Every structure is written in structure tokens, then in C-alpha cells.
Amino acid sequence: MASNFLRAALAALWLVSCCAGQGNHDVRLGPETVWGSLEDVDAQLPFHRWSQGHLLAWSKRPASSPVVDVYDSRAQLVRSITLAIPGAATTSITGVDLAKDGSLVVAGISTQADGAKARYLALVSPRGELSRMVRTGAYLAHYVCADEDRTVWTVGDEWTGPGRVKESGYSVLRQYSFSAGLLREPVDRDQIKGRVVSWGGQVYSAFLTCSGNRVRFLSVISQQWFEYNRQTGMVTEGDLDESARAVTGLAVTKQGRALVSIVERASPRGPRIFEVAPAESQDRDRRFLLRPVPGTACDADSACIWNLLAREGESLITVRAGPDGRRLYSTVVHDN
Amino acid sequence: MPSSLWKVGLAALLLVLSFAVACGRLAAQGATQPKKQQVVIIDQSGRPLASLFSGLRPGPAVRPRPLVHNVNASAACWAKREGSMLAGDDDLGGSRPLACPGCTVCSGECTCTEPVGCGGCNGCCFELNNFREDRDECSEDLGRADCYSECRSVCCLDQVGCIND
Q: B134 lies in which domain range?
């Protein structure tokens, strides 16, 4: 009797977990195309971002005139942009993005020969000329998003001195204009649970998008999700589960759904793409859930999704890794 | 006499014409030469700055020490020596020799390293580090290096803390 009860309970539990896992899946992936090989991208430029149909590659290492290489969808180099900041002995590039008109937005820190340091946002024209800069004070932007209105959204930290991060009294998410400076500071530092939102390492510590009517960012360090609604000016914040520590990319579909790629050591054959979906419960600590997108599990017979770079038209741009190395894929995304 | 006047007049006219042509060419060259780009720099309040460094206090001198690719320097890698970089990754063990080049020499920066989680390459997982430049808290002998490690026949790049020589 007891064992029957136990079996029934286990069956019910399985049913519940099964249904929960396969719930309301409105996002699915369609046919995919291999575009190019990342093996063709300069290995000295290990930071990558997909923007406006191009792959941007750069290094954070200080240099007298650092470069941002621009590759097409076949990973062929089309442009190499040199950033020469007047008066700077060395310049580090922390983040880049391409605006709709082909201008390059760059964030970073420059050092003069006398050791003076200036954190900056820079605008490089489509002809490759440095045209405008904003000195961002103590704030070092690490992630930038060129908005359609020619402003720039950033995620970063403020520093009180070399190596000392300021832990309150400013916004980690900011909107800048190259003609007016700082415009908006919607996310207070106190809302961030980690010590920093950015670091200089190989893998991203945060992801930022500014498409549609929302600006969103994910803090990998604190596993938090933030959405800034442009129309209302409201910020919605929520904790994600532990698996958000392994997020490797973020993209927003045409319908406005946020998708992230996750590569978890604990489940190497598990799904690789998840939707950041509003939680149905009213639990304040779980306003958002990571809901797996079907058909994105890592299959031993095919290249596994490693990074979700962006959404381009009707497709997701991903990096997949397999025996042939890392390749750029374009995968149709159905989002109904 | 009138013919010599005619010659002098013609010569003067030719001189004036050639001068005008030369001036025109110079003007045309000036118009097509790219002008030196003026960079507009402002602070966060929108106030114009004469340069990006206007009014900033000098700091410690810049000592750029570029990374040099050196496959023999892998033994100097701090994280590798500590075992944190490849910690617990079964895929990276075994008797097969690594085909990847190892680590670059240490960058020479003053960098603090904090392990912050797990990330990786090609399905393998490496320890992620948070790097921060810190001339006050970290000793000068800490830096960072790029390490290439094998994972399922792929060389993965990871940045690790290291000790400067």
C-alpha cells in the first residue's frame, strides 16, 4: 500500500516536472546555416560582439593605438579600425558596438604619459575618424549598446582609485549622448548584489541589449536580470537561478523575447538556449525564470551552441564549437 | 618699337596666366586634402574639454610591457601551478600530450585575480577569474597571461593570473 502510494507520488512528481519542463514553449529554432569559421578571426583579438551584420573583434590589452577588426558574416575581415586618442600613451578598449549608420562606439580607459587616466566613450565615424568623446569620470563602461537614437547605453562600475570599486551612490546602467554627456542613470548600484558587474577577463561578466522598448542587462556575477522600460522609465529587477552563472550570450527576438545561451558543466548535454521569461508566481525573488528552448541541447553528433551572439533579422547568430573548431551559425528562430 | 612692346605685353600676359594657373592648382590641392579631424570631447555634464586628460592628476608612470608569445613560459603560470585553471575537468586529464601552446609570458601589469565562477570552451569548463588592476593592493609581480589548453581536440584560450618574472 505504502509502495503504491510512493509510486503514485513519484509518477505525479514526474508528470509535474515533465510538464513544467515542456510548458508554454513559444520559441523554437528552425533551419541553420554555417556562415564562417572563427578560426579566421585574429586570435590576438579575443573579445567578440555581433552587431549590424558584422563581427567585431578587439583586445582589452593596453596599446598605443588599439584596433577593432570588423568581419563580415563569413568571418572575412572587411575593416580594421585604429583608435588613436590624442595625448594617450596607452589605450584599453573594454567594449564596442556598431551603430546603425556604421559608426563605431568604443568604451575604455586611456593613460597619458604622466600616468593620468581617463575613462571614455568614443565615437568613430564610418570613415574611421575619431569624431567625439565623452570622458566618463570615475565610471568605466565595459559593455556598450549603440541605440537607434544615436545615444549609447552602458554597463560598468565606478572606481574610487586604482583597483577600488565604488559600491554605492551611482548607476551601473547609464545612457550617454555624445553631445550632452550623461542622460540617464536608472539602476542604482545598491541593487547589484555582486561586488562588481564587470571584469577584464576573457568571458563576459554581463550582457546588455537595447533593442525595442526595453534596455536589458544580465549580471553574470550576481545572476540578476534588469529591464528598463523606455516608455515608463521603470526598472524591473529579478534574481535568476544559479545556472545564470554560466550564461555566455544574450539576444532579443523580433517579438521582444530575451534569450540567453548557457553552458553548464553540470549538464554538458543539456539545453543551450533559454528564454528569460517572467515568472508566473508572485515570488518577488523569482520574477524571471530561465525556460529551456526545445531543440537546443548539445548533441554529441553535431557542433554544440557555445555563444549566442545576437539576433539578426529572423535568425539567431551563434558560435558553435565542434571538432572543426568554432564556427558562426545563423539559425532561424520561430517566435510566436 | 611697337613689335617689341607687343612682345613684352605677351610675355607679361603669359606670366600672369601661369601664375594664375599655379595658384588655382594650389587651391584645388588644398580643397582635396583631408582636413585634420577635430575631436569634440565633453565631460559627463556636456561641458567641452580641451583634451581627454584636461585637469586630471598624474598617476603612476606608464610601463607598457606587451605580452610575448612564449610556449615555454607555461610553467610560470600561477593558476596552472595552483591547479585552479584546469581544476576538476576530466576531459583535460589523461596521458595524451597537449597539442596546445600553453601560456604567454606574464603581462607585467599589476593585476589582482579572483576566481568568480565557471566558464569554458567547447563544452569544457575552466575557472573564470576576475582581473583588476590595482597598484595599491596587489604587488607589482602579479599579472595576467593567456593560456591555451586542449579541450576535446580544440585549443581553448583562457586568461589566468600569473607571476611576473
A: 71-163
Is position B104 within any domain?
A: yes
Q: Please give the mean pLDDT across all residues of chain A.
A: 84
Which value, in Å, is the radius of gyration of the alpha carbons in chain B?
32
Cβ–Cβ contact B138 with A under 8 A: yes
* Residue A308 vs residues A48, A98, A330: alpha-carbon distances, Å: 11, 17, 10
CATH no. for residue A85?
A: 2.120.10.30
Per-residue pLDDT tens digits for A264-305: 655 566 778 999 998 876 655 568 899 999 888 877 666 778
A138 touches chain B (CB under 8 A): no
ipTM higher than 0.95?
no
A20 in a domain, yes or no?
A: no
Q: Whole-angstrom Cα distance, residue A129 to residue B97?
A: 48
Whether residue B153 lies inside any domain: the answer is yes
Q: Classify B7 as helix, strand or coil.
A: helix
Cα(A261)–Cα(A290) distance, integer angstroms = 10
What does R_g of chain A's alpha carbons equal in angstroms? 21
Whether the Cβ atoms of residue B74 and residue B80 lie closer than 8 Å to each other? yes
**CB contact residues (below 8 A), chain A span 27-66, against chain B:** 43, 46, 61-64
Pick from A131, A202, A246: which is nearest to B158 by CB? Answer: A202
Whether B108 is in a domain gets the answer yes
Evaluate whether residue A191 is within a structural domain: yes
Contact by Cβ (8 Å): B38, B48: no
Element (H, E) at A3: helix A2-21
Tally of structural domains, chain A: 1
User: pLDDT tens across B48-75, in order?
Assistant: 999 999 999 887 655 544 433 333 222 2
Residue A259's closest CA among A305, A328, A302, A301? A305
